[in-house]
Amino acid sequence: AQKVTQAQTEISVVEKEDVTLDCVYETRDTTYYLFWYKQPPSGELVFLIRRNSFDEQNEISGRYSWNFQKSTSSFNFTITASQVVDSAVYFCALSPRSGDSNYQLIWGAGTKLIIKP
Amino acid sequence: DTGVSQDPRHKITKRGQNVTFRCDPISEHNRLYWYRQTLGQGPEFLTYFQNEAQLEKSRLLSDRFSAERPKGSFSTLEIQRTEQGDSAMYLCASSSPRLAAGEQYFGPGTRLTVT
After folding, report:
1. Residue A34 pairs with which residues in a beta bridge?
2. pLDDT tens profile B31-64
3. Using CA atoms, how far apart are residues A19 and A36, in angstroms rounded to an integer?
4. Residues A101, A112: Cα–Cα separation, whole Å
5. How far A107 CA lies from chain B's nearest CA (Å)?
6. Residue A27's closest CA among A97, A103, A76?
7. B99 DSSP 8-state letter
């Protein structure tokens, strides 16, 4: 079965705190892709990052960092020094296919992140 | 690059009526996806086009739903005999082989309310 679990429904922190959003996935495929998308209150999904299952290097982009651990099937997302503008719903997604043009995404239920000033 | 656009942004309809939504993908993108998102949930895949060919349909897409992409550019999603359970946000996304595999650009969505 292909599945993405985001156990945290909602997280609320005060501005400047660090926050980690958890993502656990299930797939039988050996090649797959993992994603994080942001959905601000305006509603439009914004692509943040894509990770190939063969690349377990962690990635940092400004205040954002991602920790991919294949051994625990997790792909966690950390925001350092959070800001009010980070408030949004964050989705983790899995694309289980490769060698096929249909990269449909399987999504978690999302984590609503609230950053209080 | 004007991004993915969807029309209308909001649609309120009575149960039993037919509705049609339109998606205009990014012009050079040949891949187009439809998803449905209900409140508090992640999007669910509905269907996928490569150029004008509909290559995959989810089992979520009942006989009342039909999607087309006649010239490989814009796409339409029609729901016939709408039911209250069809109330959701319908999202369109597009992609290109030149992008990283799986990277998709989303439109703002069409919010459907069936009364």
Report:
1. A51, A94
2. 999 999 998 899 999 999 999 999 888 887 889 9
3. 15
4. 31
5. 5
6. A97
7. S
